[in-house]
Structure formats: C-alpha cells, structure tokens
C-alpha cells in the first residue's frame, strides 16, 4: 500500500472516529459504491484528472452528481482527492479505510475458494472455525475456481491456507523433480 493511500485512509477514518463514529458503516458502504461507480465509469475518473478541467468545474461536477447522496465527510474527502489529483488512489484509500474499520469493529475478512460451490452447512462450519481461530466476527466471501481442482484455499489477512489438490500436485511435482535431478 502506497504511503499516500495509507495517509489519506488514516485521516478519513480518524475524522469519522472523532466526529461521527456512528456513521462509519454508512461511510464504508458509500465508499464501496463509489468504487463500483468509478470502475464502471472510467471516463469520469479521466475527466476528474484532466488538467484542462478547472478545479471549480471539478468541484461543481462532484457536488452535482454526489451532493446529498454521500455523508458530508465522504463528499468533502472526494473533493479533496479531486483537487489534489489523487482520485486514482481511491481504491487503495478504500482498502486502508476498510482495514481500519475491520480492526475497529473486530471483523476478519476471509476468502474461501473451492473447485465447486460449497454447501451452506460447509460454509457455516468454515465461518465458525475461522471465527474461533481469529476471535473475530467473520465476513466471508466464497468463490469457485475450477483450477483449484479439489479441496479449498482459505485466505485471511496475510495468511493463506492452501488445502487444494492443485497445491498438493504442485508439491508432488517439485518433490519428484528434485528426486530425479
């Protein structure tokens, strides 16, 4: 994570914590929606970054599109990013804000990848076990990827537990290669 993203993310989170901590979840949801909008409308980002568009025009555009729809801190933050030419750092800032929010709320983001869809029962067993291991409320994302072949891959923070058949086959291939070599 770039220093700029960390600095801006820390500043926005601190502002909410000090001034309106009740709005943290709403702010996070708004920022996630903004990220989706920015991804769907890359021309908007190009326009906000364009040196030919004045700061006043950028501010007017942002206020017209998002005014009344975002918490005032998020709207002002967006204006600051646009004015500083940092709008392209938004996703990294959102990532940092999310990390801080999860730490504050004692939430662990867990991603589970399997070759085939998991049953609801298996998903809940994994959620319960991860809650026990982390001591946190688990926000779990379940994905399917046929390349896993079988088994599951669980990621939480900087830790990945790879119990996939693909990983086992790769280890076996390396073992055989080192034995033959």
Q: Keyphrases for this structure?
A:
single chain, 181 residues, alpha+beta, Peroxidase, domain 1, Glutaredoxin, 2 domains, four-stranded mixed β-sheet, 4 strands, 63% helix, elongated
Characterise the protein shown here.
The chain has 181 residues and is an alpha+beta fold. The protein has two domains: 101 residues, Peroxidase, domain 1, CATH 1.10.520; 74 residues, Glutaredoxin (3-Layer(aba) Sandwich). 63% of the residues lie in helices and 14% in strands. The protein has eight helices and four strands. Helix 1 packs across helix 6 and helix 2 crosses helix 3. The longest helix is centred in the first third of the chain and has 17 residues. The two termini are 40 Å apart. The model has no long low-confidence stretch (mean pLDDT 93).
SSE topology sketch:
Elements: H1 3-19, H2 24-40, H3 42-49, H4 55-66, H5 72-84, H6 90-105, E1 107-114, H7 120-134, E2 137-144, E3 152-156, E4 159-162, H8 165-180
Parallel strand pairs: 1-2
Antiparallel strand pairs: 1-3, 3-4
Helix pairs in contact: 1-6, 2-3, 2-6, 4-5
């Amino acid at each position: 994570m770039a220093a700029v993203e960390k600095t801006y993310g820390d500043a926005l989170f601190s502002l909410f914590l000090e001034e309106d901590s009740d709005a943290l979840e709403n702010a996070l949801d708004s920022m996630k929606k903004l990220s989706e909008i920015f991804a769907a409308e890359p021309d908007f980002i190009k326009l906000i970054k364009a040196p030919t568009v004045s700061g006043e025009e950028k501010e007017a555009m942002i206020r017209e599109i998002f005014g009344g729809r975002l918490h005032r801190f998020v709207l002002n933050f967006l204006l600051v990013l646009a004015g500083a030419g940092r709008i392209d750092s938004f996703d990294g800032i959102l990532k940092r804000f999310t990390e801080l929010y999860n730490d504050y709320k004692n939430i662990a983001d867990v991603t589970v990848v399997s070759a085939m869809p998991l049953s609801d029962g298996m998903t809940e067993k994994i959620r319960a076990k991860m809650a026990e291991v982390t001591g946190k409320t688990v926000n779990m994302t379940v994905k399917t990827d046929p390349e896993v072949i079988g088994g599951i891959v669980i990621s939480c923070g900087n830790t990945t537990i790879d119990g996939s058949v693909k990983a086992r086959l790769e280890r076996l291939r390396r073992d055989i290669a080192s034995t033959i070599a």
